[in-house]
Amino acid sequence: MTNWIEIGRVTDIPQRGARCVNTPAGKIAVFRTADNHIYAIENRCPHKGGPLAEGIVHGASVTCPLHNWVFDLASGEAQGADEGQVRTFPIDVVDGRIFMAPEVMMEAAE
Amino acid sequence: MQQKLVVIGAGMASGRVLEHLFEANPQAFDVTLFGSEQRGNYNRIMLSPVLAGEKTYEQIVTHDADWYAANGVVTRFGETITAIDRKAKVVLSRNGETPYDKLVIATGSAPFIIPVAGKELPGVMAFRDLDDVERMVAAAQKPDARAVVIGGGLLGLEAAAALRLRGMEVVVLHLMGHLMERQLDPAAGYLLQKELEGRGIRIHTKAQTKAILGNDRVEAVSLDDGTVYPADIVVMAVGIRPETRIATDAGLHVERGIVVSDQMITSDPDILAVGECVEHERTVYGLVAPLYDMAKVAAKTLVKEDAAFRPVKTATQLKVTGVSLYSAGDFAEAEDREEIVLRDASSGVYKRLVLKEDKIIGAVLYGETGDGPWFFDMLRRGTDTREMRDTLIFGQAYQGGAPLDPTAAVAALPDEAEICGCNGVCKGKITSTITGKGLTTLDGVRAHTKASASCGSCTHLVEQLMALTLGDSYNPAAVQPMCSCTDLGHDDVRRLIVAKELKSIPAVMQELEWKTSCGCAKCRPALNYYLVATWPGEYEDDGQSRFINERVHANIQKDGTYSVVPRMWGGMTNPKELRAIADVADKFAIPAIKVTGGQRIDLLGVKKEDLPGVWADLNSAGMVSGAAYAKGLRTVKTCVGSDWCRFGTQDSTGLGIRIEKFMWGSWTPAKVKMAVSGCPRNCAEATCKDVGVVCVDSGYEIHFAGAAGLDIKGTEVLCHAKTEDEALEIIVALTQLYREQARYLERIYKWAKRVGTASIKANIVDDLDKRRHYFERFTYSQKFAQVDPWEERVNGKDAHEFAAMAEFGLPVAAE
Predict the structure, then answer these.
(1) Any idea where the Rieske domain is (chain A) (predicted)?
(2) Which of B59, B208, B457, B637 is the most buried (most CB within 10 A)?
(3) A65 contacts B548? CB cut-off 8 A
(4) Is B645 annotated as a binding residue?
(5) Which pLDDT belongs to residue A70?
(6) B324-404 and B633-785 have identical folds
């Protein structure tokens, strides 16, 4: 495995909330659910570009703050009647520290 | 010649290694057992019952002197191994060297002591061995002794419950938002907290310990939020870490724990390790079941039999007498997973199963845990549950027979069975009244029989009786549920929050039997508002259940930037404020400035990270948040009134400012916009507002229930007030009635249409006592609401909202 980069600690993110990681590839939204699971997705709703990190987090889903599209955090798929997909990024959590692969942050930069 | 086996550590894992070893081959080794404690192996997980006084030390001993003698084990208790010399194959202690052919390290774990000032004071202790228990029991002898337990996990709570049983005053400090967050979801955490609080244990969540205070010994614990709890003892139960020092010193491969292979062999082929001190495939273990598995494997490896340790899923049970709690597996939500939730509020039961591809992968049970092992067994076996899906959550007893029809169960009840416990209404009374009076709605049944009219927890039974009696003519969908997380409508939820004194979102979800574990984006903001409005000063606002605008106190725009609107009382401003607005726009390169329809100024296109800086500058010019984003009081528009206008009859500007200063900061079901016009020419357009005042020569006409948005509707006249004071009291009381009755997101005109103008007038106009009470309730809640959210955030509140967690630039071009 390549050397993953630490992007922060689980406790940096509020429960049922999210924080952004700014990368050359754009903003990645990192979510923490009520039961302390961590997910990372692209911070951009495919509908009208809403910042998903600002949405309300419920279960393992987030509701976009602009027009209430709901996305599954694990798969990135839009739920219900809406159709769309956001990118998801692999995350590793060790001892409360969150890691992400460096190439993931760079690859979309081209 | 017999080989020499040395075992370091006389804990639960090493005890099991020896048992299995002697079963396999009693003659294989000549065993020497070292332990730092002055006693042999005992069942450490039973220390809680010993602390509680429910068991004695003798009852939890697993291996006594006779057993060691019978098996030829040389015991050297109280003798700590200080080093391993791998070249010479000896271990060192204060009595010199002891040679080995094979060595087993079972040093277990050490309690984690949080690094705060005062941690070394006498009276600070861990909860790890019998010495700790004896110290705690001694401390509890003193009358009115007080204990602070740091850590609301399994161990901390067992300690807390036991110390409480010993008569101590106990406070539990827990860093996270709910108890046992690694094993429980928030709903079960809530139930547990309620149970422990019922036993007189005080629970303080989100508690960041700042320091332990005292001169010669512990006297108190202080928290970051300023709370100080007096304490005679402090029990640290925040976690454990593998005790690996001697392995590290000996040059073995150690990461978080001593790294072992599937055969429990360390990086030295003659040294094995088992228990909490080891790390296997990057995982360290703290529960007893995997440790026993390790012991079995280690014993086989020692007698040269094939065996491999495979991690298995483990279940957790809290050992506090009278609390039934069971958790196993993985209970996070994800798209490919489904959950089944059963809540029975009246008996305090919560059960949640997480399924993936029809197999159970996680279970949390509270209150009724009898089916825990059955669920856990299916979880381990990966049993396909498709066939029993509908009744799975009810447990093993319901399987095998015909699927359970809930209506059939009610149909089978005798006529004299009590349905509504609050009002003592039996089944026969309800069914005969439905037939006799021709009732078709739940409200009708409530009105005529009082069944389910008090606490409402029997509502589903009454509805089933209606379905049974009326057949297809009963349409239960008459009440629109709040969202798909519940069958209850907004009105029922509001009523039950008051009746059952529910004061947190997990409490509402449990007691009202929510169907999801964590709600959704529809119900959470509504519940947060209902709790804020119902329990001022008691309910702690849940920011994560608020829409982004109310969380960051600005309006999100289509491009993800924000708009900022400072308050301009009654629409009045001055050169100082205008200069500050101009300066802040320059300083932060704010791209657009617009005059709003509510007589204030909007700064558009502010970057999120700039918000605290913008607010700091506006604050220092004396301006506060205009709440232009809030379901709360927005603006009070005014005309210039008798101050300037030749037609003005009253000081409309002054009254508008007075209303705004009295009511700012209040949260309401939907936004509230007001206006005060100085004469019937109505330049402030008061007759299309939520609440409007039109001044006349004889006083003030109070208008309400107007709309000029999605709908357009002129106001209705509520009443006439003679003085400014009277006008203010009426407007405030009206707003409070709206706050208490309306459904979340329901504007005043819709609420008024639903409940009827007559009922509003009866409360606010006709009955002066009632008006006064509504006025006073609003005034009380303002004590907690009138805090400028901008100033709070300038001073550091919610700092995480306004900064990225991490920034990564482009890599330096690698050639």
Answers:
(1) 4-100
(2) B637
(3) yes
(4) yes
(5) 93
(6) no
Q: Which residue has the higher pLDDT, B346 or B150?
A: B150
Q: Which of A37, A56, A71, A88 to mutate to test the interface with B (most CBs of B within 10 A)?
A: A56
- Give the per-residue pLDDT at B813: 44
Residue A80 has a pLDDT of 80
Q: Who among A19, A59, A94 is closest to B800 (CB)?
A: A19
Which of B183, B281, B330, B333 has the most A C-beta neighbours within 10 Å, making it the best mutation to test the interface with A? B333
Q: Which CATH class is domain B324-404?
A: alpha beta
The answer to whether A37 contacts B804, with C-beta atoms less than 8 Å apart, is: no
Q: Any idea where the domains of chain B sit in the sequence?
A: 3-109+242-302, 113-238, 324-404, 409-542, 548-629, 633-785
- Mean pLDDT score of chain B, rounded to an integer? 89
Length reported for chain A: 110
Q: Inspect the interface and report whether the beta carbons of A17 and B548 lie closer than 8 Å.
A: no
CB contact under 8 A, A16 and B807: no
Calpha distance A70→B655 (Å, rounded): 44
Q: Which of B268-272, B413-417, B623-627 has the lowest mean pLDDT?
A: B413-417
**3-class DSSP state of B46:** helix
**Which one, of A90, A10, A54, lies nearest residue B611 by Cα?**
A54
- Residue B477's pLDDT is what? 55
Token pair 């209404």 in the structure block, residue? B425
Residue A51 has pLDDT above 90, yes or no: yes
CB contact under 8 A, A36 and B182: yes
Average pLDDT on B25-52 reads 87
**Per-residue confidence at B506, pLDDT binned at 50, 70, 90?**
very high
With beta carbons less than 8 A apart as the criterion, state whether B160 and B237 touch: no
Structure tokens at A67: 């027009």
B543 close to A (CB below 8 A): yes
Q: How far is A34 from chain B (nearest CA, A)?
A: 7
Query: Residue B68: helix, strand or coil by DSSP?
Result: helix
Point out which residues pair with B675 in neighbouring strands: B637, B692
Reduced to 3 states (helix: H, G, I; strand: E, B; else coil), residue B240 is: strand
**A14/B800 Cβ within 8 A:** yes
The Cα–Cα gap between B687 and B671 comes to: 17
Query: Any idea which fold B633-785 has?
Result: Sulfite Reductase Hemoprotein; domain 1 (3.30.413)
Name the residue in chain B with its Cα closest to that of A54.
B548
CATH superfamily of domain region B113-238: FAD/NAD(P)-binding domain (3.50.50.60)
CA angle B176-B182-B188, nearest 5°?
Answer: 80
Q: Which residues from A are below 8 Å from B177, CB to CB?
A: 15
Q: Rounded to a whole number, what is the distance in Å from the CA of B230 to chain A's nearest CA?
A: 28
Q: Which of B529, B544, B744 to mutate to test the interface with A (most CBs of A within 10 A)?
A: B544
A34, A54, A106: residue with CB nearest B548:
A54
The alpha helices in B225-302, defined as continuous H runs, are: 245-249, 288-302
Question: Residues A42, A31: contact at Cβ < 8 Å?
Answer: no
Distance CA B673, CA B600 (A): 13
CATH of the domain at A25: 2.102.10.10
Check residue B1 and give its pLDDT.
Answer: 64
Q: Which CATH class is domain B3-109+242-302?
A: alpha beta
Task: Flag whether B422 is marked binding.
Answer: no
> Any chain A CB within 8 A of the CB of B712?
no
